From TrEMBL:
Gene3D superfamilies: q2cbj1_9rhob like domain. GO terms for molecular function: 2-oxoglutarate-dependent dioxygenase activity; iron ion binding. This is Phytanoyl-CoA dioxygenase. InterPro entries: Phytyl_CoA_dOase-like. Pfam families: PhyH. Its cofactor is Fe(2+).
Amino acid sequence: MSILDRILKPRAAVETPAPPRSRLIVEDWAAMTTEQQQDYFNANGFLVIPDAVPQPLVLKIVSALEAKEGEIDELTEDFWKADSIFELVGNEKVTATLEHLFETPVKFFKAAYTRVKPVAESKMRPGRQVLHMDYGGGEEIGDYRNSCACWVNVAYHLTTLTEHHAPFWVVPGSHRRFNSVPTTNLDYMFDQAKMLLVNAGDALIFHCFVAHCGDANTSDSTRHSFFFSHRPVWARHAGIVKEWPAEIVENVPEPRRQVMLDLNRGLPL
């Protein structure tokens, strides 16, 4: 099976029941106007930007990740060792959409890479994650990056999400449920969760308050995803955060590197 086939058409390795159609999110993302995108995001807390990453770049990045797999640990910034990752920063389609959603410039302040291996190869317990929100989690003491009043994750999925290939579950509108507590198990909402499937190269934007989770990978290939965190410029962090290292910034060409600069900037009083 070629690498392109593994990216575009992951095959089921373990048969699992398909969710009823009523639990699938089916939208014509490409047909949405910018106003419809904003309305959808405001109502639901997430949005898909189709074909945000061109297929040749998807193939280039996945090939680089697989070539350096032993050097790159999940949820670290080791992934910059794969030089092609720099081409994701400041993605024009995504940045333009974010700036329209927030009606303000945005800052890119954090990044993480996750690989979800097939259940047969994984050391993790098979099954989906619990529903959770991203706000307030995964921080060491003194790390204020996730403390913004408003931020989103941009998930660049580099393999097609199918019902077998670690699909994404989300509770539409849950970003407006202010009784939800960060860093807690939100599975009490799972009966309202819907499965969202995207194609390789699509970007999934979701708000930090949205209840979501990833499901098990019962396919025969690894899911590769990047999560790039962005905030509207007004939503300054609660404390000082470290700027991106110069050796990373200098690998991103102008004008795309602007989203990485002046991370502690807010709006003037």
